[in-house]
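Table 4 source record.
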Amino acid sequence: MRALLVDRSAPGGLRLGEAPDPEPAPHQALVRVAATSLNYGEIRFVLEDAKEGAVLGWDAAGVVERAAADGSGPAAGIPVMTVDGAGGWAELRAVSTDLIGTVPEGADPGAISTVPVAGASALRALDRIGPILGRRVMVTGATGGVGRYAVQLARQGGAEVVAVTGDPEGRGEVLRALGAHEVIHTPAAAAAPVDGVVDVVGGRQLVEAYEQLGQHGTLVSVGHSGGDAEHFPYGTLYGDQGRHDRSVVSFHLFGCADLSGALTWLARQVASGALDPGTSWRGPWGEVRDAAGALLDRRLHGKAILDIG
């Protein structure tokens, strides 16, 4: 099969080449991939540490080529989206059926490929905050893949949404159209305390966002795209400062239980137009260097899609 292979001698560290077809385990389906979307974390961190010749890629959408031998999951010929720690940047992918969501017939596989990591991370992070109807929820990195989905899902859940972005003047109209009630440059500028935070930036923004939590509020740390460390000022965690019982919880998508139901639901929302995937770049997978470079340089606000084949 054709695949994007890790190759340190190639521009951007990736090249199109040949790789062995994957051999599915009994609980895995074999999926023929039509499109994949890039995530900042895999380009910035995973690629950097990957072995030569490895096939990376978290997100992929396509059609089941061969159903799982154990009878679980969708049948051959069913459109699906998939998520896993590797293997998405290839024509064929073997993936566990609990990491597969079914997709409505006729849905654009490119748009659907933006969902697995970004959409499922946003949904599960909001689940961790708890009931959000009538509560204030802050989303940092709101113009990124996870952030855009988190803003939309929080609004659908009845929350008052506070979106944090580095360019509130330039991106404010877009974020308000997605459902944000308040668009600000830094968490410290929030007009009032919040009940929950979906943080995809980390570092100083995480610390600032924690300071905005009201009593019993929860911050879910989803990402660390800011690249700096978290240093809480002395006394931040004292319980006698008027706002106590505030939580910071870590998050790892692949540590979540069966994702198939969540992926299937999210696919329906994108296919119906209820969720905007926020495509910022789309092209053939041979142009991965351009897409990856734009992502690393922060020139993309949303998702980059690679069409396979």
